[in-house]
């Protein structure tokens, strides 16, 4: 039972443009959401998170948007850079913060 | 400031064998979680240790067991290995309880022949 879904396996974007990565979830009890970036042969690296009491969180070029009514999460990267090319995972957890539920990932390619 | 370290980086075993993977958490972190990542999938939660006790467990059989030591480091043990256990095993650490990002190591790639 996949409670966190990333329906786009891959995305290609020109350097300097906006990258938008999407994530849907089914469990309305999730209250903390995160995005991770993963390069080959490395572990996932934490990017940005958002609590369910907010609808937007921004950190430099990265912004996460949360739409609780639609159970939808998105990550915006502006401007996109070639170094952003990686696999991006969204994750969600209940208020205990113990178990993270991950999506299957979206492979982002930023074209110079 | 060392991050999460895992050993070994790669391991090859045969069916029916047993394996132990090791993890040292990031400095200041006392909670360790283990995940299995199959090819093309996201990480799947195995279990989490806090204060040397298993605090929560995912949907994995009893062949998967773990331990946390007083210095917060942790081990993942898998018995009676199956071909389907071939995966990347990730360790993540976090400080205390509540909603905090988990910080991951680079994983151990386990191959079962």
Summarize the entry for a quick read.
The complex is a heterodimer of chains A (112) and B (113). With 112 residues, chain A is mainly β. Chain A contains no helices and 11 strands.
List the main descriptive attributes of the protein structure presented here.
heterodimer, A: 112 residues, mainly beta, 5-stranded antiparallel beta sheet, 0% helix, B: mainly beta, 7-stranded mixed beta sheet, 11 strands
Explain what the structure shows.
The complex is a heterodimer of chains A (112) and B (113). Chain A is mostly beta strands and 112 residues long. In chain A, strands 2, 4, 5, 9, 10 and 11 form a six-stranded mixed β-sheet that branches. A five-stranded antiparallel β-sheet of chain A has the order 1-3-8-7-6, with no helix packed on it. Chain A has strands at residues 4-5, 10-14, 19-25, 32-38, 45-51, 56-59, 62-67, 72-77, 86-93, 101-102, 106-111. Chain A contains no helices and eleven strands. Chain A is 0% helix and 54% strand. With 113 residues, chain B is mainly beta. Helices cover 0% and strands 50% of the residues of chain B. Chain B has no helices and eleven strands. Chain B has strands at residues 5-7, 10-13, 19-24, 31-37, 44-50, 53-57, 64-68, 74-78, 87-94, 103-104, 108-112. In chain B, the strands form two sheets. In chain B, strands 2, 4, 5, 6, 9, 10 and 11 form a seven-stranded mixed β-sheet that branches. A four-stranded antiparallel β-sheet of chain B has the order 1-3-8-7, with no helix packed on it. In chain B, 37% of the residues are buried. Classes of the chains: A mainly beta (112), B mainly beta (113). At the A-B interface, β4, β5, β9 and β10 of A face β5, β9 and β10 of B.
């Amino acid at each position: 039972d996949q409670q966190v879904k990333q329906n786009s396996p891959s995305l290609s974007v020109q350097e300097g443009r906006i990258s938008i990565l999407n994530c849907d979830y089914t469990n309305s009890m999730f209250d903390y959401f995160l995005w991770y970036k993963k390069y080959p042969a490395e572990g996932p690296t934490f990017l940005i998170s958002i609590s369910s009491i907010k609808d937007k969180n921004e950190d430099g070029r990265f912004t996460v948007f949360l739409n609780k009514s639609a159970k939808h999460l998105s990550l915006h990267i502006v401007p996109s850079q070639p170094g952003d090319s990686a696999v991006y995972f969204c994750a969600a957890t209940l208020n205990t913060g113990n178990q993270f539920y991950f999506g299957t990932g979206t492979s982002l390619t930023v074209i110079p | 400031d060392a991050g999460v370290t895992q050993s070994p980086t790669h391991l090859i075993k045969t069916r029916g064998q047993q394996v132990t993977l090791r993890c040292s958490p990031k400095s200041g972190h006392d909670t360790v979680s283990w995940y299995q990542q199959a090819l093309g999938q996201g990480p799947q939660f195995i279990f989490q240790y806090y204060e040397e006790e298993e605090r929560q467990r995912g949907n994995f059989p009893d062949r998967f067991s773990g331990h946390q030591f007083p210095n917060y480091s942790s081990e993942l043990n898998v018995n009676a290995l199956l071909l389907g256990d071939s995966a990347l095993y990730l360790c993540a650490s976090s400080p205390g309880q509540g909603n905090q990002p988990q910080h991951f190591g680079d994983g151990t790639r386990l191959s079962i022949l």
